[in-house]
Amino acid sequence: MTIKKISNYHLPLKQDYAEAKVNWVVDKKRAALLIHDMQDYFVDFYGHDSSLIEIVIHHISQLKAWCVQNDIPVYYTAQPAIQDEKDRALLNDMWGAGLTAFPEKAEIVKALVPTKHDVVLTKWRYSAYFRSDLKQRLEEQGRDQLIICGVYAHIGVLQTAAESFMHGIQPFVVSDAVADFSLKDHIFALDYVQRNLGVVNQAHQLIRS
Question: Which residues form a coiled coil (predicted)?
């Protein structure tokens, strides 16, 4: 019912997933960054000696620095430390009590702590849009592209990318700045994005643009 310890795996290569169907390119004046669910609770499942999550956190940190340098808005999602039964609803059936059972693990990982300039959205379901004002905030800032990184690729990252697409917001998932339960799940998410709703980039492609 709960998440199991996640083993290391090598990050996917471009040849591991489909080519994009669209030629969208990140525009610094149109984009925003979403750092998805990088809370201690979710990251701890990789263990303290995970080279995978170390690489992913490093790439997210680089992406955020690039965004700050280029005046690109930065958003975070974070589940509340305590959620009552009604708020958690079907998540209890699927995952058990989750973070609610470990409220001390609700903080964003130290390497990625938000600043006063960042926006932290309260996360209630897989998609960052559910019960949040993310769409309205992006519209007010004139942003119609969303760069997505964080965990877990085939769950919240993918659902947020899909809802972005349905809102007319171009989603860009960063292949080496997301992590998942397994290489298979990770590739599934990237493949689905490229085939159906967005573009997959590597961190260095964006940072050097």
Answer: none
Q: What is the DSSP letter of 134?
A: H
> Does some domain include residue 10?
no
- Model-wide pTM > 0.70: yes
Residue 37 is among the residues annotated as catalytic for this protein: yes
Residue 30 · residue 144 · CB < 8 Å:
yes
Domain with 181 in it: 29-207
Q: Is-cis flag, bond preceding 41, omega within 30?
A: no
Handedness of CA 58, 207, 150, 121 (dihedral sign): positive
Question: Please, which residues bridge with residue 164 across strands?
Answer: none
CB burial readout 136-147, b (16+ within 10 A) else e: eebeeeebbbbb
CATH number of the domain encompassing residue 203: 3.40.50.850
Q: Does 4 reside within a domain?
A: no
Is residue 142 domain-resident? yes
What are 143-178's pLDDT values in tens digits?
A: 999 999 999 999 999 999 999 999 999 999 999 999
Residues 6+ apart with CB under 8 A from 84: none
Whose CA is closest to 34, among 4, 86, 73? 73
- The predicted-structure confidence for 77-109, as pLDDT tens digits, reads as follows 999 988 888 888 998 888 988 888 888 999 999
